[in-house]
Automatic annotation (TrEMBL):
Name by which UniProt lists this protein: ABC transporter permease subunit
Membrane topology (UniProt): Multi-pass membrane protein
Chief subcellular location: membrane
Keywords (A to Z) from UniProt: Cell membrane, Membrane, Transmembrane, Transmembrane helix, Transport
InterPro entries reported for this sequence: MetI-like (IPR000515), MetI-like_sf (IPR035906)
Organism: Agromyces agglutinans
Length: 251
């Protein structure tokens, strides 16, 4: 993909994987940036995905903690509903969600309208719930005996131990909104609000043929869209380690 984005003239043969220096150019990046504004698309993608990530982590941690640690009537039923949501494709919900957000809430052509359906992620809730279940109960009981409130227990005891789960939830949640183009396209037709995935989809459908090298321009856009996901994985990959969850318990 990177090689294809740098080729001045398309060479789909095996030899094209090792192009001659004279066939390397950044013209494809210039061509696509002139038509869809890569920086604006990246900024919109960052706002859209960042809002979804914040909601996922905050609500996922709270719901996962409540399902794993707190005892209350209906806890098993709520967890079963979270599992059931996993089998419902998001595409099946897009039309009723659009009617609710655009017509009932009046949030069409806004960042909030794009972010709202992604604020809570059932996958993240399940991840946090399963991780909280592994934590030694003695840690929580000791904190409560010392007078810590439930919020303090969550903030000071549980959260520092679930950093691998947070990293996992961030990675899994990031990929969905970052690559999503159908939902933002429904919510807003304003080019200055559309994430990069939407702009690339429009470019491939309507504009690519007008460029001197359509294949190279599409590859250039795909490279720009992929870089943040790769960087995020490299930043968080050190957190995918097993932690000694029982080290805080004597014996």
């Amino acid at each position: 993909m990177v090689v294809g984005s740098l080729q001045a003239e398309v060479d789909p043969s095996v030899a094209g994987a090792f192009p001659a220096p004279g066939n390397l150019s950044f013209e494809n990046y210039v061509a696509i940036d002139e038509r869809i504004d890569l920086f604006t698309g990246l900024m919109n993608s960052g706002i859209f995905t960042g809002g979804a990530l914040i909601g996922t982590v905050v609500f996922g941690v709270l719901a996962g903690y409540a399902l794993a640690i707190l005892k209350w009537r209906g806890r098993g039923f709520v967890f079963a509903m979270a599992l059931l949501v996993q089998v419902v494709p998001f595409q099946l919900l897009m039309i009723p969600l659009y009617v609710m957000i655009a017509r009932d809430f009046g949030l069409a052509d806004s960042y909030l309208g794009m972010i709202l359906p992604f604020l809570i992620n059932s996958t993240a809730v399940i991840i946090f719930r399963q991780f909280f279940l592994q934590l030694p109960k003695d840690l929580f009981d000791s904190a409560r005996i010392d007078g810590a409130s439930e919020v303090r227990v969550l903030w000071s005891i549980a959260l520092p131990l679930v950093r691998p789960a947070i990293a996992t939830a961030v990675i899994l949640t990031f990929i969905g909104p970052w690559n999503e183009f159908l939902w933002p396209f429904l919510v807003t037709k304003e080019a200055e609000l559309q994430p990069l995935a939407v702009s690339l989809a429009n470019f491939i459908s309507n504009i690519a043929a007008s460029t001197a090298n359509p294949y190279g321009a599409m590859m250039a856009g795909a490279v720009v869209l992929s870089i943040p996901a790769i960087v995020l994985f490299l930043v968080f990959q050190r957190s995918f380690v097993s932690t000694d969850l029982g080290s805080g318990v004597k014996g």
